[in-house]
Amino acid sequence: MPEWGEGFDGYAKRYASRYGQSLVSTTTRYGLGELLHEDVSYHKCQCTGTLARSAHALEQSFVAHTSSGKAVPSIPALVSPFVGAEVAVAGWYPARYTVSDALRTSSNLYVSLPVQNLVNEFLRR
Question: Measured between alpha carbons, how far is 85 from 18 in angstroms, rounded to an integer?
Answer without folding.
Answer: 9
